[in-house]
Amino acid sequence: MTEATNDRNSVTMIDNRSGKYFTFPILHGTVGPDVVDFRRFYAETGMFSYDPGYMSTGSCSSKITYIDGDKGILRYRGYDIVDLAENCTFLEVCYLLLTGELPNVKEKHDFEDTMRYHSMLHEQFHRFLDGFRRDAHPMAILCGMAGALAAFYQDSIDIHDPTQRMIAQHRLLAKIPTMVAWAYKYSIGQPFQYPRNRLNYAERFLDMMFRTPCDSYEPNPIFAKALDRILVLHADHEQNASTSTVRLTGSSGANPFACIAAGIASLWGPAHGGANEAVLNMLQEIGDPSRVGEYVKKAKDKNDPFRLMGFGHRVYKNYDPRARLMAETCREVLDATGNRDEPLLKIAMELERIALEDDYFIEKKLYPNVDFYSGIVFRAIGLPVAMFTPMFVLARAVGWIAQWKEMIEDPDQKIGRPRQLYLGSPGRPFVPLDKRG
Ligand code: CMC
């Protein structure tokens, strides 16, 4: 089949085997590339489209996040990420992602109150957590905790009831900081700390992470501000692997807590949310700026599986706009800790410098992504490496919830069911056990 003609609103293809013509509509987004509407492709041609990794496939329509990877643009609900990161709190951005509009003063306060109201976890979570091995990775614990919310909060899992749906969204968003902090406390054997609701969202989280019953603790305002910005930068990113997982899971009618558990599992992989952890491990392995060249060489070697972690992106073929803001936050935090000479930062800066000048990285458009600097910030705040991906969960939960909400409210929503190109045996006679060689 080859493309024959196209006008502004349709594309026509010829099947070269039969000589038949097929026409498919072109849909126009508000910005960004047009898409060919292939929904009737199978019905009309008897063929499926083949696109592993969804390199050219739009899986849904959405009004939430827009990315132009070539220009390095990221917008939430039409607002540029730089404006949001510089002027809004994370909870304002959450409100924006969920409702489509930035809150006015009253809406902002009401939303913050709602987040305080739902911040505690069911008391029985203590016992639920006791079931995990002490050395369990916090991501493993978080997958379990998110799914378990459906057992603890059964009065908000009816997806056909708009009130229950709204309460589930608020519960998820308000409880995620408590869940992440408790997963951490469990892994280090310290007592769980309850949310102190007089603090703001980021401070509350830091407080639950680092307070102990033995000492007083006040969250460092610079760390809280940096964390709030990190949350804004990671809040949503269009139809990435974990968000698509949440949508696909939700498309079967699964409850929102189960959907978020699926999203957490998908985010865990090193090519997605696990990259910030991988970046820090890589910087530690490099150990000294003088060894950066050696690692750049390894990354370019086709016979070596090593890749520069924190470089490259499926969508951004330009500097990731979030990476710039993250580099700025990184410097602010290191200044605040009096740690501007942090050796890992020096290695990171040298790596960035060499890679940005190297033909291999220039030709393949491999720029630093958001995870390149976030690990250094997390480390300066005092978070262990195993908590880096859970931090991504803390931020991305709102994006998952907003995308799930949009999908459930879409009257055209259908269960997701991709097809395949089958390459296995076409069919063979059954061989009884005693006749198998
Ligand atoms: N170091 C060295 N070479 C690379 C890298 C890298 N980090 N990333 C891509 N390449 C090369 C790759 O070998 C390939 O070369 P060739 O065309 O000669 O085969 C070419 O660039 C294209 O790579 P790809 O794997 O086909 O691109 P992709 O869009 O499938 O992968 C990626 C995107 C993010 C998985 C990949 O760039 C990568 O593995 N980066 C390192 C991991 C990382 O930092 N991930 C975080 C992504 S941002 C957070 C998020 O949104 O979740």
Automatic annotation (TrEMBL):
Transmembrane segments: 372-395
Residues of the active site: H313, D371
Family from the record: Belongs to the citrate synthase family.
Any one Gene Ontology molecular-function term assigned to this protein's record: citrate synthase activity
Any GO CC annotation of this UniProt entry: cytoplasm
A GO biological process held by the record: tricarboxylic acid cycle
Pathway of action: Carbohydrate metabolism; tricarboxylic acid cycle; isocitrate from oxaloacetate: step 1/2
Keyword Transmembrane: yes
Position of the signal peptide: none
Protein name: Citrate synthase
Pfam families named in the record: Citrate_synt
Reaction equation(s) it catalyzes: oxaloacetate + acetyl-CoA + H2O = citrate + CoA + H(+)
Keywords assigned: Acyltransferase, Membrane, Transferase, Transmembrane, Transmembrane helix, Tricarboxylic acid cycle
Keyword set includes Acyltransferase: yes
Taxonomy of the source species: Bacteria, Pseudomonadati, Pseudomonadota, Alphaproteobacteria, Rhodospirillales
